[in-house]
Amino acid sequence: MLSGETDFQAVLLYGNRGTDAEALAEGLARFWLGKGGAKVSEDLSRAIDFQRIKPTGSSEIIKVGAITPTSGPDSGDDDKEPPVVPVTVFFRTRPLMSPHKVLWFDRPDRMNSRAANALLKTLEELPDYARVVMTTTEIGRVLPTIRSRCLCAAVEAVPLGELADGPKTEIESLFASTQGDLAFLRAHQDLFEDLARLLRQTETAPPLAAIRLAEQTKELVDKLSDKTKMPTRLAAVRVLESIGQWMARNAPDDPASVQRTAELAGYVQGNGNLQLALNVLFAQFLTTRREL
């Protein structure tokens, strides 16, 4: 595509967290915007012919209002989130400064059904100047009919062992599985050190300590949410994923714990009660490890 041998109006890049999908998406957006020598703003968010759509609100959902103008309870983003121009409105007019209007659609797997159907209709009727790039870590949750209208390309993560700046500490080795994990961990090293100290207590703590450990973990989730400005639910999923990684490395004789953690991460992401999930998780940890 960059060499001009072929062209697609819609591209879907997918892969695990920590891949170069975002960098590739930005590069592709800049290519489309700058085609023919057009000047591209260093800050893409300032480019008049560019827009990025991403999940918003405490539930991390993309509603139909982000795709097409509508009204009602499913009209768009939470009041706390900055307003976005609906996709259909964005593509209604021709580009002003670039040869293309470019939409970067982040995590299309987080659309509700109304939004997914509205996006599908939009993809079917894209004007010739429109270009769309999507990025997701959950390709299986993207509507098959949307995938069929895109060039879908898998983006692989670079193994940590091949990175020149790979894990340097025990904490980094415990919690990092991808380059993206490593960068995130280094930015919040103190919180992950607290999480490691808390998890080490599961090796000797009695079953009755489960509630206390769960409450302390909830406090860590709240701190991560405050520090990163990410929704609490998303911070909780990040912490649960880290707990799963820790258990996989430190409790190889208890593989069921990794599965339980993954299941509870999905439960929380689907609007399940976080404190209840953590209570159950630590009760299972302490009971199982005592039996082992």
Topology:
Elements: E1 10-14, H1 21-34, E2 50-53, H2 87-90, E3 101-106, H3 113-124, E4 130-136, H4 144-147, E5 151-154, H5 170-175, H6 179-187, H7 189-200, H8 210-228, H9 232-250, H10 255-269, H11 274-291
Helix pairs in contact: 7-8, 8-9, 8-11, 9-10, 10-11
Give a quick precis of the structure.
45% of the residues lie in helices and 9% in strands. It has helices spanning 21-34, 87-90, 113-124, 144-147, 170-175, 179-187, 189-200, 210-228, 232-250, 255-269, 274-291, and strands at residues 10-14, 50-53, 101-106, 130-136, 151-154.
Structure description:
With 292 residues, the protein is of the alpha/beta class. The chain has 2 domains: 10-157, Rossmann fold (3-Layer(aba) Sandwich); 161-291, no CATH class. Helices cover 45% and strands 9% of the residues. It is built from 11 helices and 5 strands, in the order E-H-E-H-E-H-E-H-E-H-H-H-H-H-H-H. It has helices at 21-34, 87-90, 113-124, 144-147, 170-175, 179-187, 189-200, 210-228, 232-250, 255-269, 274-291; strands at 10-14, 50-53, 101-106, 130-136, 151-154. A 5-stranded parallel beta sheet has the order 2-3-4-1-5, with helices on one face. Strand 3, helix 3 and strand 4 (130-136) form a beta-alpha-beta unit. Helix 8 (210-228) crosses helix 9 (232-250) and helix 8 (210-228) packs across helix 11 (274-291). The radius of gyration is 21 Å and the shape is elongated. It starts with 9 loop residues before the first strand and ends with a helix. 33% of the residues are buried. Residues 77-82 have low confidence and may be disordered.
